[in-house]
Amino acid sequence: MSTFSKKLVNKIKSEGIKPSPRWLVNLLNILLWLSFFIVFLMGALSISLILRSFNIAPWEVTRLIGRSPVHSFFAILPYIWLLFLGLVFVVVNYLFKKTKNGYKYSPIQILIMGLSGSIALGLCFFYIKTDVYIERLLVESSESYERWNKLREDQWTLPNRGLLAGQILEVSFEDHSFLIEDFKDDKQWIIGFSELNDKSTRLIVEEARVIIRGKKINDDEFVAKSIHPWLRENIRPLKKRLLKNKIGNMKINN
Amino acid sequence: MYSEKTDEELVAMTIENQDCFLYLVNRYEKKLNRYIKRILNINNETVEDVLQEVFIKIYRYLNSFDQDLKFSSWAYRIAHNESMNQLKKIKKAQSVPIESDEEMGNLIEVLQSEVDLHADHIRKELKEAVHQGLQKIPFKYREILILHYIEDKSYREIGDILKKPIGTVATLINRAKAQLKLSLNDTHLFNQIK
């Protein structure tokens, strides 16, 4: 036995050093994978919320909120969720690297695997409408999130650019006009709709929340060229047929 | 009897019986001692302290040993981590000769194949230059050259030791060779060759 070995054995014995128990090793391993899956799940949820942002955007009028198509696209990007997703990938990468074989993969490989997995799971969440539940939960529980949402919604009220978003208060089909209160400043506007097609006319229902594309006539009058469901009312293509039937069955005051 | 056992068998036996750990220590004491000394370039006393810490960690984490790995890769990984900790402590390595000429063989061959040196006196001078060159290049490059050309580890083993993908190991080795050649370019020997 070498001098080094003797010193080592003495130290191990005198300090009572023992191998860490197997159960502790297993527990730490389980906790690591659990953290990884929780963070991964959060990534998938943020993907479903990003998909929701694109799904509820009224693409027919989106171009009006920006100075150019590119600017309009960036205006509707859900930055908060993209930022969150970026953060999730940093943590996922870190946790995955800590797993037994994680080091064998490059960050790019982990990113591709993580992104594909998150998109697949995010699509499932989106399909079963988890995004709607999460969005509602966040709006109800976080004032900051509600404020951020309000800022994003205010960008749809741009009367000078021919865009108005608000809730319908009264409808007069005789005068081909209705009254709305916009979401941004709670200002009331009289909207003329004689130029509308049937599809848009069907959306004119008292208390309905809508986005109107048209032209500002003066400080409180606006002529509608088309009407679109408000962001939060916008729903999946799968369900659009149901909405169509529901609105079609509604009694319109004409 | 124990000398015929594989490392992995000795690990399993050590978990049951502490005394078996000595056989693992005997197997790896010299190898890890040289490795730590080579990469850190520190005096023998400090090397022994680091080595003691390495073996204590090996013993303490025996239950974490991944049977898919070679024990030697796992032991070198712990030695690498402990050396990194030591490097942070000392910040600057002291100047201690790191190799004997024989052990520098593989690395010399690599350089020789690229500069076509034949004369013995030039080869001897090159060995000395490599000694110096290794001290000048960054730690991560020095370590990977030592692992591959001196410790004779494969890309896969180096990947397991440094916890890096094989592709990254290959890139690092190429960069390390380039760095070493660059550091040798300034030497009297290489100026002569040019």
Unreliable stretches covering 5 or more consecutive residues of chain B: 93-101
Please indicate the percent range of residues of chain B in DSSP E strands (runs of 2 or more): under 5%
User: What is the gyration radius of chain B calculated from CA atoms?
Assistant: 18 Å
Give the overall shape of chain B.
elongated
Structural Rg of chain A? 28 Å
| Tally of contiguous helical segments of chain B | 10
Give the number of helices of chain A: 10
- The SSE string of chain A, one letter per element, is HHHHHHHHEEEHEEH
The number of E-state strands of chain A comes to 5
Residue fraction in strands of chain A: 15-25%
How far from one another are the termini of chain A? 103 Å
Oligomer: heterodimer
Average pLDDT of chain B: 82
State the separation between the terminal residues of chain B, measured CA to CA: 57 Å
- Which consecutive residue ranges of chain A, at least 5 long each, have pLDDT under 50? 237-254
Structural class of chain B: mainly alpha
Give the strand order, joined by hyphens, for the main sheet of chain A.
1-2-3-5-4
